[in-house]
Each structure stands twice: as C-alpha cells, then as structure tokens.
Write a structure and sequence with these properties.
By secondary structure, the protein is an alpha/beta fold. It is about 50% helix and about 15% strand. Strand 4, helix 4 and strand 5 form a beta-alpha-beta unit. Helix 1 packs parallel to helix 2, helix 1 packs across helix 8 and helix 3 runs parallel beside helix 4. The chain is globular.
C-alpha cells in the first residue's frame, strides 16, 4: 500500500468505496476518521477496529465539514491522507429528473469535494506531505444519456482535482483522481433504482478492491489519473479522439 502516514480521513465512509478504503487502511494500522450521515453504515465500517472513528458529517455543509476536520485533527493528529468518496447517483433524463435532485447531486458530489479540500488540504500542503484522492468516474469523461446530472458532477470533480493538483504539484502532496466504470457498491444500487442506461449495462463492473489497488499503484508511480478496469483506458481514448462515435454508439444503444 502506498500510504505511509498515520491518520486518514475518508468521506462517504459508511458504505461502498469509502467503507472499503477505510477498512483497508485500518487493517494496515492507520488511524481512520470516516465522515458520513449514515451512522449505521459507519458503525459497520468501524466493526472490529478500534482505530476507526466515525463522525456524522453532512459533506455538503461547508461549516460542518470544516469544523469536523478540526475535530479530527484534535482527536487523532495531522491528517496524512484524504479520500473523498462521498457521492449520490440517481439517474434520469435531464428534463424529467427533479431539478432539486440534480442540484443535490452537485451539492454532494462536487460541493463535498470543495468543502473537504478547503478544510483538509491547506494543512497537508503546509506540512509538505500527504495524499489527496478524489473519486470521479468514467461518467466524468464519457457523457451518457439518462445520466446527465451525475455526469456533470463527476466532470466537475475531475476538473477541480486536476487544477488543484497543478496549483499544488510542488507541495509534496500526492494527488490522484480515480475514474472507474460501474463498481459493485450500494451507490450503484441508487442508479438501478432509477434507470440504468443500456450502454452502461453492457460494460464491465468492478469490485471495490480492484479500484483501491489501482489507486495505490498510481500513487506509487506518481500518476495523477487512475483508470481501473480493462475497458476504461479504451473509453478514455475514444472520448478524446472519436467523440462523434461515442455519441452515435450511445444513441444506438438507447434507441433515441
């Protein structure tokens, strides 16, 4: 594992990728703080680990996040790694999906990143060390029909993290933005409960551990972007060089 520090902070730590990341770090002996509004989920994350500490935090609330980060530092010490995995994932046509849902998507998926970055990163930059991991998605690279609200948030996450990296690339902090295809987590269940594009159904689905392993490998190699899975790099190249084909394929798959 690429993590060499003592204290890690994981948002969205009550389920899915956040839960997996938190438990893997705890197994390595790190002190792990987890943020979520899902208290039952955080209790499961901490089960069997005295070194996992849950904090009920609404990641979209700026003041709450900043106060909670200060509390973590008071309780556990300086933060050596942040992994922002908090997200929601309802799908739907943009003109049919409730605009309040679309704005909530942005508040949590993108606003949460802004909140945790501005709360935790200044200290890491000042100390000249640490890891900052953002969970984006292939949906932030390849736009998809029926998932516009989610795609917009993940595109914002990717762009924000890339600029954050370049503004602090000589700080000693390692940055990674991970862009996986669908992952078998409760987050994906949110999509299934709304509508799943046929194009997405035909692609690969990863296990959380596969994504975590790729992140650690990217950090070790000093690579900014993690593209886990067999199909992701192909999709990345196609979006970049053949955008018209990508859209044609999407329309054919969905039938409109």
């Amino acid at each position: 594992m690429a993590f060499k520090g003592k204290v890690a902070l994981i948002t969205g730590g009550g389920s899915g990728m956040g839960q997996t990341a938190a438990r893997k770090l705890a197994e390595q002996g790190a002190q792990v703080a987890v943020f979520d509004v899902n208290e039952e989920g955080m209790a499961k994350t901490a089960e069997g680990f005295a070194n996992v500490r849950p904090y009920r935090v609404d990641i979209s609330n700026t003041d709450e996040v900043h106060a909670a980060v200060k509390q973590v530092e008071a309780d556990l010490g300086p933060i050596d790694r942040v992994a922002n995995a908090a997200a929601i994932m309802p799908f739907g046509k943009l003109l049919e999906q409730d605009p309040k849902v679309q704005l909530k998507l942005m508040d949590i998926n993108y606003g949460g990143l802004v909140n945790i970055a501005t709360a935790a990163l200044p200290g890491m930059v000042a100390r000249g060390s640490g890891d900052f991991i953002s969970f984006s998605s292939m949906s932030g690279i390849i736009p998809g029909l029926l998932m516009g609200g989610y795609c917009a948030t993940k595109g914002a996450v990717q762009m924000y993290t890339e600029i954050l990296y370049h503004e602090n690339m000589h700080s000693g902090v390692r940055f990674c933005v991970v862009c996986p295809p669908p992952v078998a987590t409760p987050l994906w269940k949110q999509a299934e409960d709304t509508v799943v594009p046929r194009l997405v159904e035909s692609g690969e689905t990863l296990q959380p551990e596969e994504v975590i392993d790729d992140i650690e490998a990217c950090l070790e190699k000093g690579e900014f972007m993690s593209l886990p899975g067999k199909q992701t790099r192909t999709g990345y190249r196609m979006r970049r060089f053949l955008p018209g084909f990508v859209w044609k394929h999407a329309h054919k798959a969905e039938g409109f």
